[in-house]
Amino acid sequence: MEFLQRTPFFRLLFPFIVGIILYQHIDLFVWSQIVILLLSFVLVFGSLLIQQPQLKYKFRWLYGSGIFLFLVLSGYFISNRDFSKRNFDNINKSGIFEVELIESPIEKENSYLCRIKTLRYFDRNDAKSSLGKAIVYFQKDSLAAELKSGDQLLIEATFNKPDAQVNPEGFDYRQYLNRQGFGATTYIPSYKWKKVSVNTGFSIFRLAEDWQKKLLAVYKRFGIEGDEFAVLAALTLGSKDALHPELRQNYTTSGGMHILAVSGLHVGIIFMVLNFLLSFLDKSKSLKKLKIVLVILLLWAYAFVTGLPPSVVRATIMFSMIAIGMGFGRKGQIYNTIFASAFLMLLFNPDFLFDVGFQLSYCAVLSIVYFQPKIAKWFYIKNKLLKWSWDLTSVSIAAQIGTAPLTLYYFHQFANYFLITNFVAIPFATLIIYAAVALLLTSSVPYLPVAIAFVLQWLLRILNTSIEFIHHLPYSVTITSIMDVQVLLAFIAIVLFAFYFNSKNYYAVLSSLVVVLAFVLINLYINYDSSHATQLIVYSDNKNTHVDFIKGKDHTVFTTDSIDVYKVAQNYWLSRKLNESGSFENIVYSNDFHDFCGKRICILTDESLKGKMAKQPISVDYLIVGNNVKCYIDQVLACVQPKQVVVDKTVSKWYADNIEKACDKNGIKFYSVAREGAFVLNFKD
After folding, report:
1. Are 8 and 67 in contact (CB under 8 A)?
2. Which segments of the chain have a pLDDT < 70?
3. d(Cα 252, Cα 231) in Å, to the nearest integer?
4. What are phi and psi of 146, to 5 degrees?
5. What are the strands, taking DSSP E only, across 396-514?
6. Rounded to an integer, what distance in angstroms lies between the CA atom of residue 84 and that of residue 683?
7. What sign for the dihedral angle of Cα 573, 575, 578, 579?
8. Does 513 lie in the same domain as 549?
9. In what helix (H) or strand (E) does residue 604 lie, and over which residues does it extend?
10. How many angstroms separate the CA atoms of 8 and 15, rounded?
11. CA distance from start to end of the chain
12. In 309-383, where does DSSP find H-type helix?
């Protein structure tokens, strides 16, 4: 109760989050929203009408209940408002669109990814206003490389809805883009677009992008390149474009990726640097207030040059509140500050709640604030160096307590050497940020920045070498997976254990052990269910064919790319606790017949049946067509007689439609992976 009284923003935040989550699962009619709104007003004003002190105290819950319902409805309403902004006009329509780039292109392996908003749509008769934001992939060439934020183009395209979850336990790309405000995607060849103008109007995001490029150019001017530049750009300015996959993997498996995602750690370091540099203003109250104003302005200037990502914005809001508290001579209640920043962020964009970075950031901060002081007290250390080392260790342990469930759920891995990594990464990240600030501030001074750049390069080299060394240590990462309900159970257990250590309440520890038991029982159930399951899965993939024969925890995958199949299917294998030693067979140049659980299956991946005839077609239960094969189905059916045909996503729409027509004509069941998602066949025991 004392916690709720001291953290009023938690009392605002909790029902607001309930409303946001409610919107994801329940469609409230307008009349029901009006009823809830009227009920909240009745409860609030009813409580205000009670004048007698005893009755007012007895029915004090009326006011709280009314505010709770109002905030739940507010979260629901704001989520609904934001959802309407994601609508994309003229979806699935071919034509000419006038679009504007809202960010500079991001270079990919074979294309440039651009975030755009549509302005107009030209059909055969007229030009129409067209609203919506989309992800566009431009064919890689020299002209696409020169595109910039604010450029306005004419493109010939058909915008399509992004793919939803098409594979079991797969990534829901449509939901991911929708929550970022994008409602469509398309690919544009070089000959189907033309630059027509540039938006010269003011845009804070475009201005931030320009400043970020200027600061990155300073790094390059002083000879910082390659992996050192990639890490420095990500660590200080949040630009990750230069990070190649191998470097990302090194930081991910070693547990150091968090230092490359500009967030609370980086804003906190900048806050401390500014406090130190402006400490000469602490001499009087008026100067101290000036210092706080300067600190807040400079913090937001840093957020500005990083491109105003959500992680930096929420951290800047939090430290701005701390700075204001310092200016008024008050020690802010840290939990209230954290919840206030979260409330403001969600009020601006409720979809931040589902952002992985948002969740990890707040879980880490809350866990550090609560657990770190308690862990630090485990040992009393006088030596300053040892005490600093133990404090850093306690921070790392506290952060992992709060983030481990989410890390396992989203990324299916746990960095076993995170303590060693943090001992290296955090001190070096701090020194690098200090040196980078010094370089940027002195870049116009003769000689001095050259020396700073030299030191900065060596700091970055030592950091990268250390991270790579940790990455290559044996057992550096544990690969596993947990369900969403297990994430909830894990956090409930953490809260109950925390409550027990704080209050020594017997029922809290008993309840937490029951929750842990439920967590373990779910794991046992998944293992049991997997051991007795038999499945045939044809995965959905644009480029390759993957057919998975699963029996118990063992499985054999027939694939045209044994590396690509991991990207498509690994989440499912982990969720089902399948053995890692699944065998992989190449099917690029063969047409395989398989007997599996009493069913005969043919996988057709080339045109070897073209022009061939059989006296008696071979009867099969399932014919799987893939590997972008261009088959004439009548010729195939002359050799193979299936009960059902499954066409995967690699086959072009034209050939898939022809196959479907032939199946309808011959009374054969048809399944399109491109249209309906992965084909999953469960065999009964």
Report:
1. no
2. 1-4, 84, 124-125, 262, 265, 326-332, 580-591, 609-614, 685
3. 13
4. -90, -5
5. 413-415, 477-479
6. 42
7. positive
8. no
9. strand 599-604
10. 12
11. 54
12. 310-327, 334-348, 356-376
Q: Which of 186, 218, 96, 200 is nearest to 148 (CA)?
A: 200
Residues 679 and 540 in one domain: yes
Given this model, what pLDDT does residue 525 score?
Answer: 92
- For the chain, how many structural domains are there in total? 4
Residues 108 and 69 reside in one and the same domain: no
Q: DSSP letter at 606? A: S
Question: Which helix (H) or strand (E) covers residue 153, if one does?
Answer: strand 151-158
Evaluate whether residue 641 is within a structural domain.
Answer: yes
Does one domain contain both 515 and 626?
no
- pLDDT of amino acid 586: 55
Contact 10, 339 (CB under 8 A): yes
* Residue 314 forms part of a structural domain: no
Q: What backbone phi and psi angles, to 5 degrees, belong to 107? A: -75, 125
- How many other CB atoms are there within 10 angstroms of residue 582's CB atom? 17
Residue range of the domain that includes 7 = 2-84
pTM exceeding the 0.90 threshold for the entire prediction: no
pLDDT value at position 419?
Answer: 85
**Which is it for strands 111-122 and 127-129: parallel, antiparallel or unpaired?**
antiparallel
| Residue 185, phi then psi, degrees to nearest 5 | -140, 160
Query: Cβ distance 466 to 424 under 8 Å?
Result: yes
State the pairing for strand pair 94-101/618-625: unpaired
Question: In this structure, are 540 and 677 located in the same domain?
Answer: yes
Residue in 152, 148, 142, 78 with CA at minimum distance from that of residue 106: 148
Return the pLDDT at 213: 85
Print the SS3 string covering 245-263.
HHHHHHHHHHCCHHHHCCC
What b/e sequence results for 175-203 when a residue is b if at least 16 CB atoms lie within 10 Å of its CB, and e otherwise? eebbbebbbbbbebeeeebeeeeeeeeee
Given 516, 531, 546, the domain boundary residue is 531
Residue 326 tokens read as 């310092």
Closest CA relative to residue 395, chosen from 385, 407, 384, 387: 387
Residues contacting 531, CB < 8 A, separation 6+: 552, 553
Residue that the structure tokens 């955090």 belong to: 426
